[in-house]
Amino acid sequence: MNSPSPITAPALRVCDLRKTYDNGTQALKGVSLDVAPGDFFALLGPNGAGKSTLIGIISSLVNLSAGQVEVFGTDLVGHRSDAMRLIGLVPQEVNFNLFEKPFDILVNYAGFYGMPRAEAERLAEAELRRSHLWEKAQVMSRTLSGGMKRRLMIARAMMTQPRLLILDEPTAGVDIEIRRDMWRVLKEINAAGTTIILTTHYLEEAEHLCRNLAIINHGQIVTQGPMRELLAKLDVEGFLFDIDGALPAELPVIEGTTLTAIDGHTLDLDMPRAMDLNRVFATLGSAGIRVRSMRTKSNRLEELFVRLTGDAPVPASAPTPVAPNGTPPAQPRSGGQP
Fold this sequence. Notes:
With 338 residues, the protein is an alpha/beta fold. Helix content is 29%, strand content 26%.
């Protein structure tokens, strides 16, 4: 693969990437994808699909068996140190010292990469403020809430000012309000020019944040492209109708749709995307059914995900391998072959 100029290179280029473990398991079977500079990119797939292996290889924690990975035009195998300076990784599991203060965690992390202390302290304050953690800068990290710990991990990853930030299930296990606050932080980071790759099982999160996506299953990319274009290909959409009064004993038949009663006051409708909803309302009205309110039935990305993988997303996945205590990962063993 000819390497493009770093000025025009993708933020991430993966070409025919393969990984076979010692036990013969083929985790990746020729994965290829490009992530554009400045993109907010979703990498999705069911458990065991190969996401964690792919992230592990990109972040240089897992050796590849074959193929090539470039980060802004820098070959990961041939120029590992240069490539890794461009990457920040936020693993799924909290892995910093809980008996250290957030400010010290960030400053010491930057020190591992040779940043002068004065510069590290200045940047630590900026990142803690962006993450709404400045008021907690001098408390023991073990006292932070789960959401605060997640935001601290993002702030720590940004201390090296990476051009590519990889997030593995960054909001797993936190409630929706905390999740949305983290979305704000991530949007701000992306708007400032940092390319972000996100893995998540909260598909509404991917649909809300990401402009492009790839879905991996059984070690292969099954689809990739702009979020809007992929979702636009879905030809069926679903709605839930809240009804005033009781439903009739028999529901009207609307050709081309599936209409079922969830309970005595709620209808479930699947209809072709091209169908006019006014036709549905007219038919329901003729049957004496008054719709009080309506809402979309399910996340469109979830529908696409299930169609392509046959699996419903679950709220947890195997964590990405990480170095202990938030220190930079050790050099992988030589060889690269399983």
